[in-house]
Every structure is written in structure tokens, then in C-alpha cells.
């Protein structure tokens, strides 16, 4: 059943095709008597063990599907999970949460160990509505449809049919003619799928709005803040948007002048905003990529390289582009095996190198957490924490990019590009966050209004220095290429918040490399039951996205770039 490269990378300890058998195991938990605090703790452990078995099988099936969206049997298995098992879990999760929360021993559980779990469960009990189950199943089906469309997207290039990531990688080319051609080819591809994407997004917005209304909220944005148990408010997000616009965008525009000069162009066009100044792609094949990243990780910390080499040897990496793979990249944990799996669908490019390093930050975090505390439970997943270690890994390896760019000027260009990416991470996800605030607080918007709003927000942020005339429609529709809007709504601002923490980590690394690495490992293995701020503190940084913090880290980032020389 497993579609991989000769490895069984996940464990199927439960047969999800045997629906009545799965239901019977969950029912046993519901029927179990709880007559003391220790009974409740034992019950929570039993529940976790069953949940992990189900989760690992479902994660494995989902990874299989992402690796090969065109295999009928794999798709059938994955859709069974989404259409049959997921609704069952949603129904029983609510009953299990009620049983737990209504236990007279619930509030006697130790606060340090169970406090976060208690708050999340109480929140879920309040949010659950049975009528939302079919809506959530439909939402997942639309998400799957998006993956299929994007996984099958190809573009004609010099008479050959190429996977979409191949064309994206051409935006790195030093030749402006090639970049412009690639940009136009990408837009041509988006135009082909735009009607489908509009139909999917229109339906998703309405589904999600109804889910929120059913749960007693005015809109999906407010609902999601509760679902995600955010430790900050909607107003904090709006303030962050404004602070970045005030302090980061002017610095971004100054940096654009430097890149414009380096590129030898008078005006920045959309295909120049992504250009890299290195002469060639950093690698030609996946094996070379893995060799180099292993060396970079090893020069930073032996444990980092050990984990990467282990994953490589055990079939836990699927890198490189091919038709039929879903777009993008991700790292996912396997809670029974205690493994992490990294998936990527990128052609050779600077971005694909950085994406692998980024995902290895997640992987190292996952392995350290598992070693200290066992599998991270669903309620402990907070992306403001997870992204701190992926962005942090990128910046800890900044001084080792010469492994792929041995010439001094290329090396400096690669470092500048990674720091430019850090800048982009301070505002790009924020513009995506603002876009979603607008979409879900205006659920009856039209497709045309959505494109216009996306263009307007893009111009305020990342496209601020770009001459966009004649490409308003292309830019307006390019939201269709961002899987987050379809599959993980309101997962955006976390990237920007965590980048502020990662930049502090870089600042610490410049002062004392060994101490910064030890702090990284300490935070990455911290108890995830703590507040976000406490985990950041264990990493040696502050969880702070106030105006002074944004201003200070923007100035630091600009200073580091200037130190590389122009």
C-alpha cells in the first residue's frame, strides 16, 4: 500500500478500512470508568496511544497521496480516511472531550502538565457542532482537489512539458529575458486553472463562514482565533501589520535599490523581485543537495547532521520535482514511529536549498521533542513555536552557504538572498494574513473583488518597490498558487512572528555561536505545555512583535545586510 522508494516509513498498527473495529476501540474509551485522578491520567494515556495509531496511519496515507496524486489506489485510501474516518473522529472526539471535561477529576489534573490540554479541550467542547462535520469533510475534499490540480500542473518550456516547480526555479536566472519568460509562463498556467481555483475558493469561503456561524461566531476569522488557541488578539495582528508597514517596508525599499543596481535594471518588474544574483543553481541533482546540506548541518552541530543522515538512510526524505507530486514542501511527524518525514517538490534553485534547511529545522525540533517528551500531541502544535526552529535553522546555517557557493561573490550574494528572504518573511505572510482577514470578514465578496484586494495588499507590502503596470490582473490572481489559503487557513502570521525570534537567534549566534546553538536545542526540546513566551525564553529570545521589537529587528537585519557590502 505504501508508495515510497523501497522503505516502509510509517507504521499501520490499525486497519482504517475496518471502520467498525476503529469505532469499537474508541467506544471502549468512552465506556471506561474514571474513578480517580490516576484513572483519568491512565485514560488520557490510553486515548493518546489510540489517537497516535490512527494519526500515524492517516499521516502516512496523506504523505503517500502527496507523493503520487495520480495513483488511483493511493487516492482511494486517502479519500477513505477523509470521507469516512475523519467524520467518525470528529464525532467521537467531541464525545471524548465531553467525557474528559465532565469528569469530577478534570480540574485536579496537574496544571503544569495538563493546563494547556484542559484549555484546548474546554474550547473544543464549546466549539463543537455536529452539523459542522459534513462541512468539514467537504472542506477537506476541496483541499484534496486543489492538490490534484496543482500536482498535475505542467508548463511547456522550449518544446518540453515541465512540472510547474521547474518553471518557478527559472525565476532565479540571471538572464532577465529568461526570468520574464518564466514569469509569463507561470501566469499563463495560473490563467488556465483560475476558474477552478475561483470555484474552490468561493465554496471554501462559504463553507467556512457557515462553520463559524454554526459555532456562534460572526465570521470565520474570529472562529479560527479560538480554534488555534492564539495567545494574542485580532487587534495585535492589525498592530503588527501596521508596525511592519511603518518600519520594515521602507527598509525593504532601500534594499530593493541595492538589488536593482546589482541586477543592472532601471525599474523593478515582477520577474525581477524574485531574482537571485548567484550565477548557477546551487546543485544539479538531489544527491548533491543532500551531501551538501549534511555537511552544513554537521559544521553547525553533530546532532543536526546525525538526524539528517539517519532520515536519508531510512527513506524519510522525498526531494526533487516530478509530475504528480503535490506542490510545496513540508515536514510531518509520525507519532508512533517517532520519525519525521520531509517532502519537497522543487527544482534545483536557491529556494529549494533553503526550503530543505527550513524543513530540517522542523525535523530536528520533532526529534528533540520526541526524545524528551514522546510525540507532540495535537493540542500542543503551535506554529509560532514550530516556525521559530525552521527559520532559526536557516539563519544558523547562513555562514555555511559557501558549501554550495564557493566563489566569494556568489557566497555573499547567497547570504544577502537569505537575509532578503528574512525580510520577506516579515511582511509576505503578513500580507497573506491581512488578505484572509478581509476574505473571511467579507464572505460575500466576488472573485473579481478578491483579486483586486490581493493586488492592493501586495502593493502595500512586498510589491511596494515593483513597477506593476500591465500586470495588475496577473498579480491579483496569483493568490491561487498559495496552498495555505486553501489547506491551512490563517496559518501565515506565525511565519512573521517567529522570524522576529529567529533574527534574535542570529544576533545571539553572532555573539556566541555555541551558546546560540545550545539555546536552540534547549528550546526545541522544551515542554510544549508552556506558554509560547516561556518556550521562546528557553531558546534565548523574546516572544515580542510590538513596534519597538519590529523596529529593532528591522534595523538589525538591514545592518547585517549592509555589512556584506554592496
UniProtKB/TrEMBL annotation:
<feature type="domain" description="Peptidase M3A/M3B catalytic">
    <location>
        <begin position="173"/>
        <end position="554"/>
    </location>
</feature>
<comment type="similarity">
    <text>Belongs to the peptidase M3 family.</text>
</comment>
<keyword id="KW-0378">Hydrolase</keyword>
<keyword id="KW-0482">Metalloprotease</keyword>
<keyword id="KW-0645">Protease</keyword>
<dbReference type="InterPro" id="IPR011976">
    <property type="entry name" value="Pept_M3B_oligopep-rel"/>
</dbReference>
<dbReference type="InterPro" id="IPR045090">
    <property type="entry name" value="Pept_M3A_M3B"/>
</dbReference>
<keyword id="KW-0479">Metal-binding</keyword>
<dbReference type="InterPro" id="IPR001567">
    <property type="entry name" value="Pept_M3A_M3B_dom"/>
</dbReference>
<protein>
    <submittedName>
        <fullName>M3 family oligoendopeptidase</fullName>
        <ecNumber>3.4.-.-</ecNumber>
    </submittedName>
</protein>
<dbReference type="Pfam" id="PF01432">
    <property type="entry name" value="Peptidase_M3"/>
</dbReference>
<keyword id="KW-0862">Zinc</keyword>
<dbReference type="GO" id="GO:0016787">
    <property type="term" value="F:hydrolase activity"/>
</dbReference>
